[in-house]
Amino acid sequence: MQTSFEIDYVDPVVETIETLCELGFESKGHCYVSERGDCRAAIRPSNGWLYLMNIRTNPRSRSLGQASALLRDICRIADDFRVTVFLEVEAGSDSDMTESQLLDWYWRHGFRGCKSEMIREPQ
Questions:
Q1: InterPro entries, alphabetically (predicted)?
Q2: Which is it for the CA torsion 11, 19, 108, 31, positive or negative?
Q3: Which of 7, 44, 57, 66 satisfies CB 3.0 to 4.6 Å to 31 for a cystine?
Q4: What tens digit of pLDDT does each residue of 114-123 get?
Q5: Fold for domain 12-120?
């Protein structure tokens, strides 16, 4: 006698993206973007992880905590679904932060790594 059964598997990255969309991220082709106030973040799924493509704040609104709040939301949802987030650290031409300051900022949000790449495992 042969028994068949289905395995209900839901990709945690897909669940993470769906939940972030409920919080205001919108599909923009190959990535998902959220704009809150003067802050913008872009993420995309990549091989079972979330890749944080960029997070930027308009210069006139920096130091108000908008980027930190958005990054905390991304990390909280990734934690909920046990998804690792990774990024490449690069100070933009309009940034008033050095790469060293950016590394420190990401470090405070739980990211670890070297000069150019950082990851944040679920916490």
A1: Acyl_CoA_acyltransferase
A2: positive
A3: 44
A4: 778 999 999 9
A5: Aminopeptidase (3.40.630)
